[in-house]
Each structure stands twice: as structure tokens, then as C-alpha cells.
Amino acid sequence: MKPANVAAASLNRQAQLIASVMFLIIGFALSTASHAQTTKVAAAVAKAKQDAAPPKSIDPTLREIEKYREALADGNPADLWEARGEDLWKQKRGPNKVSLEQCDLGLGEGVVKGVYASLPKYFADTDKVEDLETRLVTCMVLLQGFTYEQAKKAPFGSADNRSTMEALVAYVTANSRGTKMRVALNHPKEKEAFEIGKKMFFHRGGSHDFSCATCHAQDNIRIRLQELPNLTKQAPAQRAYTSWPAYRVSQGELRTFQWRLFDCFRQQRFPELDFTSQGSVALTMYLARNANDGVLTAPSIKR
Amino acid sequence: MKTYLPSILLVTLIAAPTLVFAQVKADNATTVMTKSFKERGQAKLDRLNQDKAMAACTEYATKPMPSKVAAAITAENLAAIPFPKDGNYLGDWKAGERIAQSGVGKQFSDNPANPSGGNCYACHQLSPQELSYGTIGASLYQFGKNRAYSPEIAKYAYGKIYNSQAYLACSNMPRFGHNQILTEAQIKDLVALLMNPESPVNK
Question: Before A299, cis peptide (omega within 30)?
């Protein structure tokens, strides 16, 4: 080996050494940063939960229910839905055999982190205001080539008929844990959705004269033993909205916000709220906007 | 007259589009709502329709209702109550307790062949043994006892359950008789739950 080559080889080795040391340092820094990020999110969620917790009840029956809820929160099976949702998000699916990784949920193609905090919002490609579920349907149709009927099939799953939608929603919302709600009313269609949603909230009808407001426009009331949040006020609206979606112990399923509205209207004695309909998105817009600045803690666990 | 014409025209030009816009907005909300529901089981789309009271209660949900409007609602609903001809308002309190506990009826998930319940405990405290009661309505514990079991109160209780808006415009309480949720006999059973001295409500 010529001296020049030796020098070059030694230089090369030095460069390799420096590179690997740099790599280690950067790697360490990155892992520390990501660890710090995870810890930060966990701390934010814990703080939000603490802030969001309603004042401790004096009623002994309600105190026992609170204890039950605290015990539940220890192990949340929503993890299983989140994991299945991540797989479904990354899988090449549909006639077009593409994944949802190019889906724009509002913060750009493929961005999942923090998106739930800005939904519902206006999307130029569909010229519509869409909530998370509606947007996922849009992506399944436009990207993956499913029909609307296929994409909207089984929005609410059961043990023998698992819902793709519920899993995807669990995955996406889990990636917004610790994020502050920031739903905008900039586009005229966003403002219109809010106004229509507000009208729906106060619309009395059905055999029982009920509106959403019958149960959700007063402070400190309960139905049977269930406390009812006043969704016209910011603090209780934040507590309620940021805790959805949720794993429902009584159903053994993870339920989305669309399901929450669907089942409220069932009990309101209204006809069936059509999944991802314009009205469902409008009402979600009204409630999500009322919850602005609340920190998302979902998917949570409820009885 | 000539001098007024231009200003009238001007006012009309400014006001008309504003009015039309407001109208379109309200209609739009109704249209969106109608298109966003589908009939299922016994819950048809006509459930979204409103009678006079519902429409007025919706209109004034977020602002004070003029007393004239409220008085018209109560008068109209009171006039629509067919009080039992025999003047008897008291049925069986034990049957009443079961009706007060039951929350089924009129949901698209319910079988319309089964009788509806009143679900009174969802909103009211009644028998002290039942700890799972709501607080949307007033506590009715000792309702009859506190009112000396008076016959006028029994008639009022019947009317209130039959059509709550006969006494309070835009009450949160369903109009159980008026909207054919409960039968006359069922309402009498509930009145007995409230008014019979043997009922746990009065213990």
C-alpha cells in the first residue's frame, strides 16, 4: 500500500469513527427527545384528566361510581383497537391496493399526529366540512377505490363483526392524545355547519318532545345516576368531547363520536341519524367547537 | 309621497336580501336535518316535525319567551286534556311503580307491540328504596303526603303527566298522554304511586 493510500485509508477510518460517534450521539439525542416527547404527552394527558375531572361528589352513591371509574381507567382495552387501526391504516387495501398513508386528514398527506384536534374542518377536495369518520370514508373511496357503501359498512362493530372504522378512529385519535382542541370557523361552510349543528341541538321533536338541550343545557343534573354535561358551556363541553371515542365496558366495544350521537338520538326517540350525514357532521362541529382548548384524552374508557 | 319613495325603495333593497338570507339559513338547517335521518322501525321521519309548542320552544330555546307565547302554549295544551269522565284519577300504585321504572317505548330499538314505560326515575326521585334516580325534574318523594292527599292535586297530577305543557310551557317533561306514550289507565297507576298513602313514595 502506498503511503498516500495508507493516509487515505486512515482518514477513511477516522471519518467512519467520527460518523459512528456522531450517529450514536444523534441517536441518543433522538431517543431522549422522543422519550421526552412521550413523557410530555403522558404528563399533558394526566394533567388534562386531572383538570377535566368533575368536582368530587359528596353523594355516597356517586362517590362509589367515581371509584369504579378510577379502577376502570387502569387497563383500557382501547389499545387493541388502536393496534388494529394502525395495521389497517398501513395495509394496502381496496381495489386500488394502496394504504391510507397518503390520506390527508387536515394537516397534510399522511399526517396523523394531532389531527383530531382540528376536526371537523372544511376540505377543498370534497368542498365539504368533514369530521374524522367522514374524512376516513372519503379517503377509503378516493384513495383506495372502495364504494361509499363499502366504506360506510359496519360503522359500529360487534364481537363477530369487527368495524374497520372504529379501529381506524382509535388509531388516529390516540395520536392526538395530549393535543389541545382547535376547531376553526374560518371557511363559510365551517360557520354554516356550526349554525346548523346549533339548530339541531335545540330542535325539539319526536314522541317525547326531546332535544339535545333537554339533557345537555343545564348544570349539575343527572339522568338516573349518570351526570349530564352542559354542552353549551365550555368546561363541561371540553370534559365530554375530549373523552370520545371511548371503550364502552357495557358493550365490549370502542365507540366513536358518530356512535355517541347516533345513540343519543335513538334515546331521544328520533329516527336513525345517518352515519356521516351532513347533519351529524354539523352537530359534531357545534359540540367540538364548544370544546375548543380542551385537551384530548381519548380513547378513554367508560362504563 | 314622491319624496318618500326613494327612501322606501332603498330600505326595501337593503332589507329584502337580509330577510331572504335569514330565511334560507333556517330552511337550510331543516333541510339538512331531514336529509340526515332515515326512518327505522317505528321511528319515522315525521318524528322530526314540530307542533306549535315544539316550534315555539325551539325558537325561544336560547332567549326569553314572551309571556303571551307561553300563555298560549299552556292554554292550548290544557284545553286538549281529556280528563277521565268518572272523575277517578287513582289506579294501582304497584303497577305505577313498574311503569315509573320502565324506560322502554317509542325508540326505534323498541318493539311497538310492548307497552311503553314512563321512565319517571330517569328524572325524578320517587320511592326512597330506589337510589338510582335522576335530578332533571323535582323530587316527588312524599308528593301526596306533603299535599294532604287532596283530590285537586290528584287531578293536577293526572293532567301534568298527561300533558306537562298545560301547566308549564316548554317543560322538559314528555306529554305522556297527549303524545300517546302512556294510556289513561297507566297514567292513573302513576297518579296512585304519587297519591296513595300506601305507596312507598309517601312512606
Answer: yes
User: Contact at 8 Å (CB) between B194 and B99?
Assistant: no
ipTM of the prediction: 0.88
> In the Cβ-directed half-sphere of A118, how many Cα atoms lie within 13 Å?
16
Q: What is the DSSP string of A159-221?
A: TTB--HHHHHHHHHHHTTTTPBP-----SHHHHHHHHHHHHHHH--BTTTTB-HHHHHSSSSE
CB contact burial B23-50 (16+ within 10 A = b; e otherwise)? eeeeeebeebbeebbeebebbeeebbeb
Taking CA B106 as the corner, what is the angle to CA A213 and CA B58, rounded to the nearest 5 degrees? 25
Query: Could you tell me the CA-to-CA distances from B36 to A146, A209, A278, B189 in Å, in that order?
Result: 22, 19, 6, 38
Query: What residue in B sits closest to A62 (Cα-Cα)?
Result: B132
| pLDDT values of chain B reduced to their tens digit, one per residue, 203 residues | 445 555 555 554 455 544 444 445 556 899 999 999 999 999 999 999 999 999 999 999 999 999 999 999 999 999 999 999 999 999 999 999 999 999 999 999 999 999 999 999 999 999 999 999 999 999 999 999 999 999 999 999 999 999 999 999 999 999 999 999 999 999 999 999 999 999 999 99
The grid coordinates of residue A27 equal 441517536
Q: Is B137 within 8 Å of B123 (Cβ atoms)?
A: yes
d(CA B170, CA A214): 10
Size of chain B, expressed as the number of residues it contains: 203
- Residue B91 to residue B185: CA distance in whole angstroms: 7
* CA distance linking residue B104 with residue A227, whole number of Å: 20
* Residue A194, burial from CB neighbour count under 10 angstroms (0-12, 13-18, 19+): buried
Choose the closest CB to B50 out of A204, A217, A266.
A204
Catalytic residue IDs of A? 264
CB contact under 8 A, B175 and A211: no
pTM (2 d.p.)? 0.85
Check: CB of residue A244 under 8 Å from CB of residue A121. Answer: no
Count of pairs with CB atoms under 8 A, one residue in A, one in B: 133
Q: Which of these, A73, A75, A77, A105, lies nearest to A89 by C-alpha position? A: A105
Return the beta strands (E) in chain B as ranges.
Answer: 37-38
